[in-house]
Predict the 3D structure of the following.
Amino acid sequence: MPLTERRLSRIREVASRRQLDVTVVIENVHDPHNVGAVMRTCESVGITEIHVIYTDPRLLKRGLQIGKKSNAGARRWIDLHVYDDVDHCLRHVKERYGRILGTHLGQSSAHYFDIDMTTPFALLLGNEHEGLSEKAMQYVDANIYIPQVGMVQSLNISVSCAVILYEMFRQRYRSGLYEPKNLHTSSAHAEVYREYLRRHEEGYTGKRAFAHLIHRDALPITEKD
């Protein structure tokens, strides 16, 4: 695709609004559509990378599946890091982002409206059946919940992710954190801009190379309609 002035301006604006101090971690999520939906939400609010933990043998054997239709555009702009070890992943995330906010039912927790999301954090989400593992919970600095008044007190993981991240968006937007950064003075955002230009110019789709496996030698990546 030719790099028109309009496209160049769009890439520059998107890169300058990226929230480089926020990420999402998901643990043993079974449904590939949920993985894809989380990726798409993250891209829409300006997150540049997510972390996927697979320690369930069934998931490791199957490999990483991504819901194709739900994230076809987002995969170009999101870096996906895959781990087969909880400690390895969360130590890295803790060092990079500081706070880890968990979403685990049954633990003492705070209303997600009451959490300051204008400072760096990682959002940690468990799977559809068991939630977060005990090992993952050891890294959580604060546990948050989404209030519900229905008979069924649970939300789909991708819905929970979207609800929380758009509260983050609201807080940061009102605080001016989504104002475009000056690419001449923000080296981190300038680096994102250069990387996005490269992906555009090389026709990068993310279908093959968007997932970087941190711990295992090989893990098949497939798409699921």
